[in-house]
Structure formats: C-alpha cells, structure tokens
Amino acid sequence: MAKHWWKFLSVILLLYVIIAGFSVEIPVIGTNEQSSRNLFFHVPMWMCMYANFTISVVYSVWYLATNDLRKDIVASSGGSVGVLFGLMGFATGALWSTYTWGGTIVNDPKQLTTGIALTIYLAYLVLRQSFTDLDKRARVSAIYNVFAFALLIPLTYIIPRMVDSLHPGSATSPGFSSKDTNHVMMRVFYPAIIGWVLLSIWIFTLRVRYKKLALKNLLHG
Amino acid sequence: MVLAFIFALVKSSLSRIIALVKKDLLLEWRQRHALFGILLYVFSTVFVINLMVKEPEENIWNALFWVVQLFVCVNAVAKSFLQESRGRLLYFYSLVHPRYFIVAKLIYNVLLMAAFSVVSLVCCIFFLGNPLIHPLYFLGVVVLGGVSLSLLFTMLAAIAAQASHNAALMAIMGFPLIMPILMLLANISRSAFAPVAQPGLPGMFLLLGGMDVLVIALALVLFPYLWKE
C-alpha cells in the first residue's frame, strides 16, 4: 500500500480540481468571462504530454545504448500516452477557442505548431506499426523518436515565443496571473497540474505493465 | 605533433568521404535514366500547373513552388538509399565507418538537390511567369531550402531503407517532420515578392540554420545505431 499513495493523491487532487474548478469564484479577465476555468484542464494536459514524451525519449536513447526490449516498451508507452494527452489538450483548447476566438481552428501560431508536433508523434505511432521484426522496430522507432523530440522543443517552445499569439498572456491579450490578485485561480491551478500529471503517469505505468506482459507471453508463451 | 596527427586523421577521413561522394556521382551518371526521370518529373509537374492555372499570383506561386520542391526532394533523395542493394550496403559497412558513409550521402544529396532546386526554379519562372522582385535573394533561399530539405530526407531515407525499402513510409514520416521547415521557407521567401523588408527575417534565417545543424548532428550521432545489424 505504501507505494500507492500517489495514486490516492492524484484522485483526491483531481476531485478537488473538478469540484473547485467549476464552483470557485474566479476573477473576470478580459473577454474570457467564465471560460478561464479551462486553465485547470487545458494547461495541465500539455504538462502531461511533455512529461510522457520526455520519459519516452529518455528510454529511446537508453534503448539504443542497451538494446533491451523492455526499454523500448517504456518508450512506446510514453509516446502513446503523450499523444493521448496532447490530443486532449488540443481538443480542450479548440473547444475554448470556439467560444472565445470565434473559430475552432484559427490562425494562431501555437495552435498550428502543436498541430504539427502532434502529427509528428502520430507518425511515430504509425511507424511502429509498420514493422514485424521486434528489434528492428525498436531501433528504428527509437531513432525517429529522438528526431521527433528534437523538433517538438523548437515547435512548441521557441517558435511560439518569436511571434504574437492569441493566447492569454501574450501580445495584447491580458495574462491570468496579473489579474488573479487573490491567487484564487492559482490555488486550483497548481493542484491541477500535480493531479493530472500523476494521473498520466498512472495510465503510463499501467500500459507499460500490460505491454511487458504481452512481450513475456510472446517470448516465453 | 598532436596537430600533425589530427591533420593526418582529418585528411584520411576527408579522402574517404570524397571517394564515397565520387562513387555516388559516378553511379548517378551511369544510371542517367534516374536523373533524367526526375528532370522530366519537375518539367511535367510544372507544366501541369501551367495548364491548370496559367500564371498564378505571387502567394500561390510561392506555395506551388515549395510543394513542387518537396515532391522533387522526396523522389530524388529516396532513391539514394533505395538504389543500394542489401549486399552492397554490407560491403560498405565492412569498408568504412557508418559516420563517413552518412556524411558522404549528405554531401551527395545536398549537391543533387541544390542542382535540382535551380532547375525547378528555372522551370517555374519559364512556365508560371516571374512575380519575383528580388530574384537573386529568392535564388539564395531556394538553394538553402533545397539543402535543408535534402538533409532531413537523407536521414529519413536511411530509416525507410531499414523498413524493407518502403517508400510510402518515407512520406508518412517525412511530411510531418518537414512541415516546420517548409513553413519557415515559405515565410522567408515571401520577402522576394515584396519591395519592403519583412520584420523578423534574421531570426527566421537563424532558426532555419539551427534546424539544419540539428539535423546534421542527429544524423551523425544516430546513423551508426541505424546501421548496426
């Protein structure tokens, strides 16, 4: 039981985030009105995605160094869970932008570049499917994964900072932290990050365990 | 003493790389059908565009040009690994370190693609009209773009060659990866159509150069792992 405490923590934090996130009195920021509550759900998704992709690329490099198929399983699980959270982040963002920007897919640089980054990772998942040889699949997809991560950073970190975005906090749209004088939103936001990231790690470990069992069956079954 | 040693090392590796590049160029010249096949490909693509839209306005001209470049690059570079048979790759593996091999392939593809870039630019101007205000600037961007595209696709062709020479796989992997580079190139080349200078141009050039360096570095580090079989 002792090592499962973080799973309980995740559930409790997320319950708090969902209840408080929808009921707490938030300051009205610009034209966002009540839609600012999306902060508790949209932004943590990207943190989860980054966490999983980082795990994935570390294990890919580790695989190339050791040629241990279990490392490849961890890398692939990180990739697919990262894509799942990336897609959810994109969906929550698109839903929010439909009502605040007046269009689901607008010409916003952050939206475009994350769209490209997600396509790159979807190609990673397709690439994995196209091999039947386990070792070859592991080696080639590990190499592609390093490429994908090397492009993820400039795409989602460097380019969006060079140009103006419609996102709150950049260019002319007001940021959240300056208006949130009582730190009401921050009191929900930080637990939300921790809760969601723990949940994504939880899903990731489940997937790793399942895939490892499948590999064991394949090799010794 | 140490300097002389380093110098000798550089000289020997350079001679190996030059030998490999020469071999590729010679092969290319002996199998001229592939070379002329791509030339015909450029010509017919641009001619089809001419039949469909005659002389497009500058934004569409720019977009069409880069799409033509993308497909020319996929066709030209994919061939460089797909033409090598398995036995021949094994032979090279016994002769040289994989790092020399990938450097030679990179250089060869850069040369090839720089030449094809100029050809497709001439073709586009001939068939689709010339909306360029700064033609020399655009020529520079085109060669730079050809180099960037060929660098990335060389590495992807090497990966695709592992997947039982599957050319469709290259498109699946390549198009998402190439999107940011194409986006940058299209933005940079837009300056060639406008008489006024565009803001943020040096930053974009820097980013493009950074991506090229990144791709080269990754290729040098990762290719030896790819070849290990």
Multimeric state of these chains?
heterodimer
Summed up, the helix count of chain B is: 8
Number of strands of chain A: 0
Question: Would you identify the regions of chain B where 5 or more consecutive residues have pLDDT less than 50?
Answer: none
Mean pLDDT of chain B, to the nearest integer, reads 84
Low-confidence parts of chain A, pLDDT < 50 over ≥5 residues?
Answer: none
Structural class of chain B: mainly alpha
- Count of alpha and pi helical runs of chain A: 7
**End-to-end C-alpha gap of chain B:** 38 Å
Find the count of extended strands of chain B (DSSP E, 2+ residues).
Answer: 0
Shape estimate of chain A: globular
Proportion of strand residues of chain B: under 5%
Q: Roughly how many Å is the radius of gyration of chain A?
A: 19 Å
- Largest sheet features of chain B: none
Secondary-structure element order of chain B, as H and E?
HHHHHHHH
Count of discrete structural domains of chain A: 1
Radius of gyration of chain B: 19 Å
Largest interface: A-B, 29 and 25 residues
SSE blueprint and pairings:
The complex is a heterodimer of chains A (221) and B (229).
Chain A: H1 5-23, H2 39-66, H3 69-100, H4 109-129, H5 134-162, H6 176-179, H7 184-220
Chain B: H1 2-30, H2 32-53, H3 58-82, H4 86-95, H5 98-128, H6 135-162, H7 167-189, H8 201-227
